[in-house]
Fold:
Amino acid sequence: MLRVILLLFCVVAASLSTADVTQYRLGAGDLIQISVYDEPDLSLEVRIGLSGKISFPLLGDVEVAGLSPKTVETHLLNRLKGPYLVDPSVTVSIVEYRPFYVTGEVEKPGSYAFHPGLTVDKAISVAGGFTERASKGKIYVIHDSTMREDDSNRRKSVKLYDVVQPGDVITVEQSFF
Structure:
């Protein structure tokens, strides 16, 4: 019975991590690696600029913000195929996610490197923990709008175990007592 439960847990965890990767939307500050098989001059590592574009050899500026890495692969493949390459193979991977930010009643407010699996309590720990005036019940997040298709860039209340995404801004309010 334990083996069955453990196997189900592994399958669910794998599907969740796969879904997260396919749903991730690139944004300004992400560092990506683009590899074109057998074409070293077309393979590069580039940080996405504030414009949401990257400069790619032969193609010029390419809009990538708001797209998944898989969508960028398809887009580059379609633009390279024909005029430049016969049958290109393109891979896009994330080298470094854009940072998240912690403000308010924490010891060291600022921007920090994002790592998958980050939760609000871990993010606050990275920022030096709560100050003595912090309210542990009044923690808010503003999600990076490039991550969401809807209008969810408004301030939302979060719990310590909630997941943080790249570009999120976490604010810890002051306690009155």
User: Anything to note?
Assistant: Residues 108 and 151 are 30 Å apart (CA to CA). The chain has two domains: 24-96, 100-174.
